[in-house]
Amino acid sequence: MSGPASLGLGDYPWTRMRRNRKAEWSRRLVAETRLTADDLIWPVFVLDGDDRREEVASMPGVARLSIDRLLDAAEEAQGLGIPAIALFPYTDPALKTPDAEEAFNPDNLICRTVRAVKAAFPEIGVICDVALDPYNSNGHDGLVRDGEIVNDETVEALCKQAVAQAEAGCDVNAPSDMMDGRIGEIREALDTAGFANVQIVSYAAKYASAFYGPFRDAVGSGGALKGDKKTYQMDPANTDEALREVALDIQEGADMVMVKPGLPYLDIIRRVKETFTLPTLAYHVSGEYAMLKAAAANGWLDNDKTLLETLTCLKRAGADGILTYGAIEAAKLLQDA
Ligand code: PBG
Question: How far does residue 14's CA lie from ligand 1's centre (Å)?
Answer without folding.
Answer: 51
